[in-house]
Design a protein that fits this description.
The protein is of the alpha/beta class and 78 residues long. It has three helices and three strands; from the N terminus they run βαβααβ. It has a three-stranded parallel sheet, with helices on one face. The termini are far apart. The relative contact order is 0.24. The model has no long low-confidence stretch (mean pLDDT 82).
Length: 78
């Protein structure tokens, strides 16, 4: 089976879909860094129209949720 790299859009439903359907082998899940922790992330979040977490605790929830079902698969987009 071919492995895929998945971009994460901060939507728990994407992870739920991947869990429920097991359609692909996941090599990694790419996630943007928290906006206040990385200078380039601020401009990234301003140009991409999706709901990214504005609070660090919410960002951590996404990380924990991904790690729960796909441990050691997260890679930060820097």
């Amino acid at each position: 089976m071919k492995s895929f790299e998945i971009p994460y859009n901060f939507d728990f439903e994407l992870i739920d879909f991947l869990i429920n359907y097991h359609l692909i082998d996941i090599y990694s899940i790419y996630i943007a860094p928290f906006r206040n922790h990385y200078l380039s992330a601020k401009s990234f979040y301003e140009t991409i129209p999706f709901n990214s977490p504005r609070e660090i605790n919410n960002y951590k929830e996404h990380i924990q949720y991904i790690n729960k079902y796909f441990p050691n698969k997260i890679m930060l987009l820097l």
